[in-house]
Design goal:
Blueprint lengths: L1 H13 L2 H10 L6 E4 L4 E4 L4 E3 L5 H5 L1 H10 L3 E4 L4 E5 L2 E5 L2 H12 L11 E6 L5 H7 L4 E7 L3 H12 L8 E4 L2 E3 L3 E6 L10 H4 L9 E8 H11 L4 E6 L5 H10 L8 E7 L4 H14 L2 E5 L7 E8 H7 L1
Parallel strand pairs: 7-8, 7-13, 8-9, 10-12, 13-14
Antiparallel strand pairs: 1-2, 2-3, 4-5, 5-6, 11-12, 14-16, 15-16
Helix pairs in contact: 1-2, 10-11
Length: 320
């Protein structure tokens, strides 16, 4: 009965069966729109923009969970002929899927990777995705350089485009179209453009190159890639951000085996639930502690993911 009453309320406001169903389903309150019979469009008051049926579905798909929060926080939606962008301060990010909205919420509102320090840092963004975290970090004054790693070519191309929209910050960001692991190899993986943030070696699995939407990705040993960069910035401090859908275990173990963990000052790791992950998560934390890190972990073994923040004791002493 409540659903029927809600529908009738929307129908009174829109005089359109399509818009009544659509706006109710997407959670757009009647206070935030009015209907224009001429052209069969709705005007969203909070962003002062009119929509025809089928326009910018990602905005409506993310309205109830994310978009209204972004509007309240002063983020600006920009609608071009074919694309949707969001402007946050002087940053501009293209939105193709709701997953980008999720990441923006995680980075800019939940402050998952917020860094406050009197020191300057070089960041290694492993699992760069479409570049949202790298762009956020590039806007921080104490971040000198960012090296991003993204193995999937279509996702890498999105990151390259996003960095290109932000000419003021692009000189800080160095993009690499390969992933980091504990091996050097090429593998074929399934690719879902609507689910770019959840793709990885451990999540989608290796597939034969005879399927639809298959991408060949390159993996390189983390230690072999990061050591030259650490040597290049020998007087700097380093942050590693890891969000690589299960490969975090292989990467940390490789850096430990090559005696490189202690070269970094901060780790920000999104850990993922994988087969045998409880033992591997315990091992990951133990390796960091053994290398002199103070470790803070969120989430539990009942959850699919959680965060680890690890601070090098020597770095903490230098901050004081």
């Amino acid at each position: 009965m409540r659903i029927k009453n809600d529908y009738l309320k929307y129908l009174r406001y829109t005089k359109s069966t399509f818009w009544s169903n659509y706006l109710l389903e997407k959670g757009v309150p009647v206070s935030d729109f009015y209907y224009l019979k001429k052209g069969n469009t709705v005007h969203i008051r909070s962003i002062d923009h009119s929509f025809s049926p089928g326009d910018y579905p990602v905005f409506f798909d993310g309205y109830n969970k994310y978009c209204w929060k972004f509007i309240e926080n002063g983020f600006r939606f920009v609608f071009t002929e074919n694309d949707l962008f969001i402007e946050i301060g002087d940053l501009k990010i293209k939105i193709d899927t709701v997953q980008e909205l999720y990441i923006i919420n995680e980075v800019f509102l939940e402050n998952t990777y917020k860094i406050e320090s009197s020191s300057d840092y070089v960041v290694f963004d492993i699992g760069m995705n479409v570049g949202i975290t790298s762009l956020y970090l590039s806007s921080l004054k104490n971040i000198k350089d960012i090296y991003g790693f993204e193995p999937f070519k279509p996702t890498f191309d999105c990151a390259t485009a996003n960095v290109g929209y932000n000419t003021r910050h692009m000189s800080k960001i160095h993009l690499n179209n390969f992933g980091l692991s504990n091996v050097n190899s090429f593998i074929n993986l399934g690719y879902d453009p609507k689910n770019k943030g959840n793709l990885g070696v451990k999540t989608v699995g290796v597939v034969e190159n005879d399927g639809k939407n298959v991408e060949q990705i390159e993996l390189r040993k983390a230690s072999e890639c990061l050591r030259p960069l650490v040597d290049k910035h020998s007087t700097d401090r380093f942050i590693i951000k890891l969000d690589c859908e299960g490969s975090e275990y292989d990467i940390i173990e490789n850096l430990d085996q090559e005696l490189m963990l202690e070269k970094f000052d901060v780790f920000m790791i999104e850990w993922h639930k994988m087969e045998g992950y409880k033992t591997r998560l315990d091992t990951l934390i133990s390796l960091l502690k053994k290398s002199g890190f103070v470790v803070f972990a969120t989430g539990s073994f009942d959850h699919e993911i959680g965060m680890i923040y690890a601070l090098n004791n020597h770095s903490l002493q230098r901050e004081q």
